[in-house]
Write a structure and sequence with these properties.
By secondary structure, this protein is of the alpha+beta class. It contains six helices and four strands.
Length: 182
């Protein structure tokens, strides 16, 4: 066999092997991503089941979450335009008889384990929480969401620390002009 052909075959074999390894890596990342929330197991339990490090499993789950967020955020949670704000306002006017409303703000606490170095910043009523703030339209669809505020903070403090509040006060939300209530 000529050396050029042998080199070509070995190159194809190597690239096929590399493709298989990369496919398995992607498969395992997706496996951990779907099994983690579905099973309720911790990374430690996955560590014993799959004989991989806890940090490796955590990095797989976080990596897939970040990749999904980057790919889907513009499609699933687009930044509202002036027309969409107007449609949201019409929705509140028609369904709730609440004119000129561009969203309903809600804050929920998500219970977490105390993480190192957090002190009592997330402590709220003897439990640890991270605050989640969201703005929804009249059909309960998310318009804006913010996760990660301290659980000890009151609603107004959480709201004032969001990008939504800063954009609202700076006039960068593209909100339609005020209209008379009829």
């Amino acid at each position: 066999m000529k050396s050029g052909i042998k080199h070509f075959i070995l190159k194809i074999e190597h690239s096929t092997r590399t493709l298989i390894v990369h496919s398995l890596i992607i498969l395992f990342r997706l496996l951990f991503f779907f099994r983690y929330p579905a099973s309720g197991n911790t990374f430690v339990e996955f560590h014993y089941s799959y004989r991989l490090g806890e940090k490796t499993i955590g990095n797989c789950v976080r990596g897939v979450c970040n990749a999904l967020w980057d790919q889907l955020v513009e499609e699933q949670l687009p930044f509202p335009t002036e027309e969409s704000w107007r449609a949201i306002s019409e929705g509140f006017k028609n369904t709730a008889h609440f004119p000129n409303c561009i969203g309903s703000v809600v804050r929920k606490n998500v219970r977490v384990l105390k993480y190192p170095g957090s002190g009592s910043m997330n402590l709220n009523y003897k439990l640890f929480f991270v605050a989640r703030m969201a703005v929804v339209d009249s059909n309960y669809h998310f318009v804006y969401t913010d996760v990660g505020a301290y659980g000890k903070d009151c609603d107004s403090s959480v709201f004032q620390n969001t990008n939504f509040y800063r954009m609202l006060t700076d006039g960068r939300l593209n909100v339609s002009q005020p209209a008379l209530i009829q």
